[in-house]
Amino acid sequence: MKKTLMFFFFIILCFFTSLNFAKNNSVTSPDNTAASEAGKWYFGGNLGANVWNDYILISAEPMIGYNFSSKFSSGIKAHYSFIKENFKNRENFTYHNFGGSLFMRYSPVPLGYLHAEFAFTNYEHHNYNQLNQKYESERIWVPFVLLGAGYRQPIGPNATAYAEILFDVLQDKNSPFKKWEPIVHVGIAVGF
What is the pTM of this model? Predict the structure, then answer.
Protein backbone atom coordinates (compact mmCIF):
# COMPACT_ATOMS: atom_id res chain seq x y z
CA MET A 1 0.00 0.00 0.00
CA LYS A 2 2.91 2.36 0.75
CA LYS A 3 4.28 1.85 -2.77
CA THR A 4 0.89 2.68 -4.26
CA LEU A 5 0.55 5.91 -2.30
CA MET A 6 4.14 6.93 -3.04
CA PHE A 7 3.64 6.26 -6.77
CA PHE A 8 0.45 8.34 -7.03
CA PHE A 9 2.02 11.12 -4.94
CA PHE A 10 4.99 11.12 -7.35
CA ILE A 11 2.71 11.36 -10.41
CA ILE A 12 0.71 14.24 -8.94
CA LEU A 13 3.88 16.07 -7.85
CA CYS A 14 5.45 15.73 -11.31
CA PHE A 15 2.26 16.86 -13.02
CA PHE A 16 1.84 20.02 -10.94
CA THR A 17 5.57 20.79 -11.15
CA SER A 18 5.19 20.66 -14.94
CA LEU A 19 2.18 22.97 -14.74
CA ASN A 20 4.18 25.47 -12.70
CA PHE A 21 7.10 25.24 -15.17
CA ALA A 22 4.79 25.95 -18.11
CA LYS A 23 3.16 28.87 -16.32
CA ASN A 24 6.53 30.48 -15.55
CA ASN A 25 7.99 29.77 -19.02
CA SER A 26 5.30 30.95 -21.40
CA VAL A 27 5.63 29.80 -24.97
CA THR A 28 5.01 32.08 -27.91
CA SER A 29 4.19 31.20 -31.48
CA PRO A 30 6.31 32.38 -34.44
CA ASP A 31 4.27 35.61 -34.67
CA ASN A 32 5.14 36.37 -31.00
CA THR A 33 1.59 35.85 -29.71
CA ALA A 34 0.78 33.36 -26.99
CA ALA A 35 0.41 29.87 -28.42
CA SER A 36 -3.27 29.13 -29.00
CA GLU A 37 -3.04 25.68 -27.41
CA ALA A 38 -1.31 26.87 -24.22
CA GLY A 39 -3.36 26.40 -21.10
CA LYS A 40 -5.87 23.93 -22.51
CA TRP A 41 -6.90 20.85 -20.59
CA TYR A 42 -7.98 17.71 -22.41
CA PHE A 43 -9.37 14.38 -21.32
CA GLY A 44 -10.16 11.08 -22.99
CA GLY A 45 -8.66 7.64 -23.05
CA ASN A 46 -9.09 4.12 -24.33
CA LEU A 47 -11.66 1.39 -23.87
CA GLY A 48 -10.84 -2.15 -24.94
CA ALA A 49 -12.39 -5.57 -25.20
CA ASN A 50 -11.04 -8.87 -26.44
CA VAL A 51 -13.04 -12.08 -26.54
CA TRP A 52 -11.35 -15.16 -27.92
CA ASN A 53 -12.48 -18.74 -27.23
CA ASP A 54 -12.45 -18.95 -23.43
CA TYR A 55 -10.61 -15.67 -22.83
CA ILE A 56 -12.24 -12.31 -22.01
CA LEU A 57 -10.41 -9.00 -21.53
CA ILE A 58 -12.12 -5.68 -20.76
CA SER A 59 -9.97 -2.63 -20.14
CA ALA A 60 -10.32 1.10 -19.51
CA GLU A 61 -7.64 3.79 -19.51
CA PRO A 62 -8.99 7.29 -18.77
CA MET A 63 -6.54 10.18 -19.08
CA ILE A 64 -6.33 13.88 -18.39
CA GLY A 65 -3.70 16.12 -19.90
CA TYR A 66 -2.59 19.71 -20.22
CA ASN A 67 -1.28 21.45 -23.36
CA PHE A 68 1.61 23.63 -22.25
CA SER A 69 2.08 24.84 -25.81
CA SER A 70 1.14 23.74 -29.31
CA LYS A 71 4.09 21.32 -29.20
CA PHE A 72 4.26 20.00 -25.63
CA SER A 73 1.69 18.35 -23.36
CA SER A 74 1.74 16.16 -20.28
CA GLY A 75 -0.80 14.26 -18.25
CA ILE A 76 -1.79 11.32 -16.12
CA LYS A 77 -3.64 8.08 -16.86
CA ALA A 78 -5.35 5.44 -14.77
CA HIS A 79 -5.39 1.80 -15.90
CA TYR A 80 -7.83 -1.01 -15.13
CA SER A 81 -8.32 -4.38 -16.79
CA PHE A 82 -10.57 -7.34 -16.06
CA ILE A 83 -9.48 -10.72 -17.43
CA LYS A 84 -11.33 -14.03 -17.23
CA GLU A 85 -9.84 -17.29 -18.46
CA ASN A 86 -11.96 -20.43 -18.64
CA PHE A 87 -10.04 -23.67 -19.02
CA LYS A 88 -11.43 -27.10 -19.70
CA ASN A 89 -10.22 -29.67 -17.14
CA ARG A 90 -8.57 -26.89 -15.09
CA GLU A 91 -9.42 -24.15 -12.67
CA ASN A 92 -10.81 -20.88 -14.13
CA PHE A 93 -9.05 -17.58 -13.33
CA THR A 94 -10.21 -14.00 -12.91
CA TYR A 95 -7.76 -11.10 -12.75
CA HIS A 96 -8.22 -7.45 -11.75
CA ASN A 97 -5.18 -5.36 -12.77
CA PHE A 98 -4.84 -1.63 -12.07
CA GLY A 99 -2.32 1.19 -12.02
CA GLY A 100 -1.45 4.62 -13.29
CA SER A 101 1.04 6.54 -15.36
CA LEU A 102 2.55 9.91 -16.15
CA PHE A 103 3.06 10.78 -19.83
CA MET A 104 4.62 13.52 -21.92
CA ARG A 105 4.12 14.27 -25.60
CA TYR A 106 6.20 16.42 -27.92
CA SER A 107 4.86 17.33 -31.39
CA PRO A 108 7.68 18.11 -33.86
CA VAL A 109 5.09 18.12 -36.70
CA PRO A 110 1.45 19.33 -36.51
CA LEU A 111 -0.35 15.94 -36.40
CA GLY A 112 2.42 13.66 -35.13
CA TYR A 113 3.94 13.36 -31.68
CA LEU A 114 6.65 11.56 -29.72
CA HIS A 115 5.39 9.90 -26.54
CA ALA A 116 7.19 9.01 -23.28
CA GLU A 117 5.39 7.41 -20.35
CA PHE A 118 6.25 5.97 -16.95
CA ALA A 119 3.62 3.45 -15.82
CA PHE A 120 3.26 1.38 -12.68
CA THR A 121 0.71 -1.47 -12.80
CA ASN A 122 -0.42 -3.96 -10.17
CA TYR A 123 -0.91 -7.42 -11.69
CA GLU A 124 -2.63 -10.42 -10.17
CA HIS A 125 -0.82 -13.72 -10.73
CA HIS A 126 -2.00 -17.26 -10.06
CA ASN A 127 0.71 -19.80 -9.20
CA TYR A 128 0.27 -23.50 -8.57
CA ASN A 129 1.27 -24.59 -5.05
CA GLN A 130 2.54 -28.18 -5.09
CA LEU A 131 2.04 -28.61 -1.32
CA ASN A 132 -1.69 -27.97 -1.15
CA GLN A 133 -2.39 -28.84 -4.83
CA LYS A 134 -4.15 -25.50 -5.44
CA TYR A 135 -3.60 -22.28 -7.35
CA GLU A 136 -2.76 -19.28 -5.17
CA SER A 137 -3.12 -15.63 -6.07
CA GLU A 138 -0.48 -12.97 -5.48
CA ARG A 139 -0.21 -9.33 -6.55
CA ILE A 140 2.94 -7.68 -7.89
CA TRP A 141 3.77 -4.12 -9.02
CA VAL A 142 5.44 -3.86 -12.42
CA PRO A 143 7.10 -0.65 -13.69
CA PHE A 144 7.17 0.28 -17.39
CA VAL A 145 8.94 2.94 -19.42
CA LEU A 146 7.00 3.28 -22.66
CA LEU A 147 8.49 5.17 -25.62
CA GLY A 148 7.01 5.62 -29.06
CA ALA A 149 5.15 7.87 -31.46
CA GLY A 150 1.61 8.69 -32.38
CA TYR A 151 -0.65 10.41 -34.85
CA ARG A 152 -3.70 12.53 -34.08
CA GLN A 153 -6.55 13.59 -36.33
CA PRO A 154 -9.06 16.31 -35.45
CA ILE A 155 -12.64 14.99 -35.58
CA GLY A 156 -14.43 18.08 -34.31
CA PRO A 157 -13.81 21.56 -32.90
CA ASN A 158 -12.51 20.19 -29.56
CA ALA A 159 -12.12 16.47 -30.25
CA THR A 160 -9.19 14.48 -31.61
CA ALA A 161 -8.77 10.80 -32.46
CA TYR A 162 -5.30 9.39 -31.89
CA ALA A 163 -3.31 6.23 -32.49
CA GLU A 164 0.09 5.46 -30.98
CA ILE A 165 2.64 2.69 -30.98
CA LEU A 166 4.72 2.28 -27.82
CA PHE A 167 7.47 -0.07 -26.68
CA ASP A 168 8.37 -1.08 -23.12
CA VAL A 169 12.09 -0.25 -22.97
CA LEU A 170 12.48 -1.07 -19.26
CA GLN A 171 11.58 -4.76 -19.68
CA ASP A 172 11.05 -5.62 -16.01
CA LYS A 173 11.27 -9.37 -15.35
CA ASN A 174 7.51 -9.42 -14.53
CA SER A 175 6.45 -7.43 -17.60
CA PRO A 176 3.72 -9.13 -19.64
CA PHE A 177 5.17 -7.58 -22.81
CA LYS A 178 7.80 -9.46 -24.80
CA LYS A 179 10.94 -7.64 -25.84
CA TRP A 180 10.12 -5.07 -28.54
CA GLU A 181 6.48 -6.20 -28.70
CA PRO A 182 4.51 -3.14 -29.89
CA ILE A 183 1.76 -1.75 -27.66
CA VAL A 184 -0.93 -0.07 -29.75
CA HIS A 185 -3.37 2.46 -28.30
CA VAL A 186 -6.25 4.04 -30.19
CA GLY A 187 -8.46 6.59 -28.48
CA ILE A 188 -10.23 9.93 -28.41
CA ALA A 189 -9.34 13.11 -26.51
CA VAL A 190 -11.68 16.04 -25.91
CA GLY A 191 -10.41 19.49 -24.96
CA PHE A 192 -12.04 21.91 -22.53
Answer: 0.72
**Ranges assigned E (strand) in 69-182:** 72-85, 93-106, 112-129, 134-154, 159-168
Question: What residues does each domain of the chain span?
Answer: 2-25+40-191
Beta bridge pairs of residue 183: 166
The total of other beta-carbon atoms located within 10 Å of residue 3's CB is 10
Which spans in the chain are helix H?
2-24
Within 13 Å of residue 168, how many CA atoms lie on the same side as its CB?
Answer: 18
Q: What is the pLDDT of residues 60-109, one digit of tens each?
A: 999 999 999 989 999 999 999 999 988 776 678 888 999 999 999 999 99
The terminus-to-terminus CA distance of the chain in angstroms comes to: 34
CA angle 157, 183, 40 (to 5 degrees): 25
CA-closest candidate to residue 164, choices 182, 180, 150, 146? 150
Within 10 A of 2 (CB to CB), how many other CB atoms are there?
6
Of the two residues 46 and 143, the one the predictor is more confident about is 143
Tell me if the domain spanning 2-25+40-191 has CATH number 2.40.160.20.
yes
